[in-house]
Amino acid sequence: MAQPATTVFSPGGNLSGGGMFLRARSSLAPGTEVTVRFQLPYLGDMVEARGVIRWRQMDVREEETAGIGIEFTEIDVPLRERILHFIESQSLSLL
Hints:
Helices cover 18% and strands 39% of the residues. By secondary structure, it is α+β, with helices and mostly antiparallel strands. A four-stranded antiparallel sheet has the order 1-4-3-2, with no helix packed on it. The longest helix is centred in the last third of the chain and has 17 residues, at 77-93. The protein is globular and about 35 Å long.
């Protein structure tokens, strides 16, 4: 039997070619398989990747999840390249 779908909205977080961190209050546990949909800033296209939650960051003051770390397990090569290009362009603009 398939797990029911859960939608988590996040204002964003850290992004890499291998995964992402989402600031989100979520009860999803490490090991949970997820599909993430997000927009790359300045590029506008909605993109999608499959992944697995690898860890949760806890908010010790409120004793609840403050964010989740997701490792990409299925991501199109062109999308990964776009992500890496975006990250590189942002790094260069900080110099």
